């Protein structure tokens, strides 16, 4: 043991120094590991600021504990090793949680970390007198690394913006605002016949534009659905997954519009599958995802993730983040767009209607006081709709709305217990696929309702057509041709959807047997399982899909026809 253990103040100083060193080092290791994961094309669910936030927040959290221990060790400096074991174990626990958090019980992670922490404290204790100077230098070096990482991240963002915020030449082309209402199903909106007034702002927008009554998403969850909208490709063509982002090899709408002198900006509230790691940010001059909040900073290190997940009784491979409200997304967009009247393409993802439903207090009891799942969902939809209305009013006040074609849709819908299922991404029922789609702006006819079935796959081709641009690399058809066609018979992509099982899929889920795919054709919607089993529903006679017609001989021809159509689109691998 060291010979000067009688010096309580030195012992306290040493404990604080080494606690900060270990915590910051563990945070840097974590940032590098997750950075490598992200660079390899996998989704790590962390902010681009994580590389500096993790060590800084880790040092702060462990440092608070170390301060308490330092006060105590002054009176018993001979027990330094045992006091040091606590911050050393906390630093180790963050890395253990990062590696094995959903594979190993929490108590086992704690025991493993205590063993590692004791060995680290024992190792330092024998050397801390000789290394005191080195420890001080290490703290300074770590501080410089953290600050340098933050500067690099900020410089990279400036570089991504490209310096200029206006185009070289204004050509009188329309701007485009694509608003995705995350997890908002069509059947829960007033403009689609819902009895509750959940969408007055969208209703007004539809009155001055075109509403598509039968728009369907290509997937029942966020990433492949957005990917299809941005690229014109089916989910399987994107090579995305529950942990894989959109590859750089596939052209995206923002890149194309930027190459045609459009300003491009993306602003999202979905911090799971639309962040920079998703690949959806490519081509945007500015892209804002994770909020710059104290909570987000404190949640950066894995140690905080463990504590917060335990608090929420929640275990998942995905990391938790601070929630970004629709108002913050809208404010980011309005700050970026300013009063500049040069053409822009902006993408907004509004996440307020996504689980867990947390409507603002003023909206929480808007429809019922019981606060059932549907009540909270509807209140969230309505509160978010008010943000949409305020955003459009702000654009109007700036003289930008009459220059902007607004497309409002959803990436997927939501189930509230129908068919024994809640949420989304876990089946291909129509409630997860039937989404709103409203297009309004200059040159768009007012008050039109299109009955033809359309797919969100055609979003990119539609924007290109409305911008009067050519040579676009996007498959699909421009659904804007439908309102110029009185017979509404213009070519569109089939309303095809597909989904792969998520890792750890529930054995009772419709996806337990493997992937699903579906197709809407006329009044019918077919669902095909990977083993060849088919389901058939009549959406006009049975919009809730309560009766499977696949075993009814009267519908054998319809079933066979849709099986052929599904095979023509894509065969099972």
Q: Measured on Cα atoms, how large is the radius of gyration? A: 27 Å
CATH homologous superfamily classification of the largest domain: Alkaline Phosphatase, subunit A
Which percent band covers the strand fraction? 5-15%
- What is the second-level CATH architecture of the largest domain? 3-Layer(aba) Sandwich
N→C terminal distance: 65 Å
Instruction: Quickly give the structural class.
Output: alpha/beta
Instruction: Classify the helix fraction into a percent range.
Output: 40-55%
Low-pLDDT stretches are 1-5, 161-170
Q: Could you give a short account of the major beta sheet? A: 9 strands, mixed
Query: What is the fold named in CATH at topology level of the largest domain?
Result: Alkaline Phosphatase, subunit A
CATH class of the largest domain: Alpha Beta
Q: How many domains comprise the coordinates?
A: 3
Total count of strands: 15
Mean pLDDT: 89
Shape: elongated
Task: Give the number of helices.
Answer: 17
TL;DR of this structure?
This protein has 573 residues and is of the alpha/beta class. The chain is 42% helix and 13% strand.
What does this molecule look like?
This protein is an alpha/beta fold and 573 residues long. It folds into three domains: 8-155, no CATH class; 176-288 and 324-494, 3-Layer(aba) Sandwich (Alkaline Phosphatase, subunit A), CATH 3.40.720.10; 516-569, no CATH class. The protein is built from 17 helices and 15 strands. It has helices at 8-39, 50-73, 80-100, 106-125, 132-161, 200-207, 222-231, 235-238, 253-259, 294-298, 302-311, 326-337, 361-364, 373-397, 430-433, 459-466, 556-569, and strands at 175-181, 209-216, 263-268, 286-288, 344-350, 404-409, 415-416, 422-423, 434-435, 437-440, 448-455, 495-499, 516-521, 524-529, 534-538. The strands form three sheets. Strands 1, 2, 3, 4, 5, 6, 9, 10 and 11 form a nine-stranded mixed β-sheet that branches. A four-stranded antiparallel β-sheet has the order 12-13-14-15, with helices on one face. Helix 1 packs parallel to helix 3 (80-100) and helix 1 packs parallel to helix 5 (132-161). The chain is elongated, with a radius of gyration of 27 Å. The termini are far apart. Mean pLDDT is 89; it is low at 1-5 and 161-170.
């Amino acid at each position: 043991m060291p010979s000067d253990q009688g010096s309580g103040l030195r012992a306290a100083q040493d404990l604080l120094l080494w606690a900060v060193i270990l915590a910051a080092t563990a945070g840097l290791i974590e940032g590098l590991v997750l950075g490598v994961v992200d660079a390899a094309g996998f989704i790590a669910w962390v902010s681009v600021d994580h590389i500096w936030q993790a060590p800084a927040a880790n040092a702060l959290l462990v440092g608070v504990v170390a301060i308490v221990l330092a006060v105590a060790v002054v009176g018993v400096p001979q027990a330094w090793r045992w006091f040091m074991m606590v911050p050393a174990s906390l630093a180790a626990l963050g890395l253990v949680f990062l590696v094995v958090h959903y594979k190993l019980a929490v108590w086992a992670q704690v025991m493993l970390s205590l063993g590692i922490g004791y060995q680290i404290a024992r190792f330092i204790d024998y050397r801390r007198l000789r290394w005191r100077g080195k420890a001080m230098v290490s703290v300074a070096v770590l501080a410089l690394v953290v600050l340098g990482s933050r500067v690099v991240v900020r410089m990279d963002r400036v570089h991504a913006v490209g310096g200029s915020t206006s185009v070289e030449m204004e050509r009188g082309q329309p701007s485009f605002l694509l608003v995705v209402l995350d997890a908002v199903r069509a059947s829960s909106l007033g403009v689609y016949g819902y009895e509750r007034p959940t969408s007055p702002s969208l209703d007004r927008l539809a009155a001055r534009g075109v509403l598509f009554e039968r728009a369907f998403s290509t997937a029942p969850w966020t990433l492949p659905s957005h990917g299809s909208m941005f690229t014109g490709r089916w989910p399987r063509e994107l090579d995305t997954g529950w942990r894989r982002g959109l590859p750089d090899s596939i052209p995206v709408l923002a890149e194309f519009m930027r190459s045609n002198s459009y300003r491009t900006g993306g602003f999202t509230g979905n911090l799971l599958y639309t962040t920079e790691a998703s690949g959806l940010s490519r081509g945007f001059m500015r892209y804002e995802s994770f909020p710059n909040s104290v909570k987000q900073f404190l949640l950066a290190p894995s140690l905080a993730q463990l504590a917060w997940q335990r608090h929420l009784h929640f275990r998942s491979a995905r990391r938790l983040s601070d929630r970004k409200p629709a108002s913050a997304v809208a404010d980011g967009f309005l700050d970026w767009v300013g009063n500049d009247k040069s053409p822009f393409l902006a993408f907004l993802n509004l996440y307020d209607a996504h689980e867990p439903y947390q409507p603002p207090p003023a909206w929480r009891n808007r429809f019922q006081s019981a606060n059932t799942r549907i009540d909270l969902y509807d209140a969230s939809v309505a509160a978010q709709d008010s943000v949409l209305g305020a955003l459009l009013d702000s654009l109007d006040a700036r003289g930008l709305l009459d220059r902007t074609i607004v497309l409002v849709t959803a990436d997927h819908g939501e189930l509230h217990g129908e068919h024994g299922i809640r949420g989304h991404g876990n089946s291909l029922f129509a409630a997860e696929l039937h989404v709103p789609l409203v297009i309004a702006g200059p040159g768009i006819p007012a008050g039109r309702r299109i009955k033809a079935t359309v797919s969100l796959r055609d979003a990119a081709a539609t924007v290109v057509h409305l911008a009067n641009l050519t040579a676009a690399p996007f498959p699909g058809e421009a659904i804007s041709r439908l309102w110029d066609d009185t017979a509404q018979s213009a070519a569109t992509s089939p309303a095809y959807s597909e989904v792969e099982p998520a890792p750890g899929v529930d054995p009772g889920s419709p996806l337990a047997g493997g992937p699903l795919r579906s197709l809407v054709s006329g009044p019918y919607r077919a669902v095909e399982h990977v083993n060849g089993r088919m389901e058939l529903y009549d959406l006009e006679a049975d919009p809730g899909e309560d009766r499977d017609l696949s075993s009814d001989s009267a519908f054998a021809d319809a079933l066979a026809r849709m099986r052929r159509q599904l095979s023509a689109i894509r065969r099972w691998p």
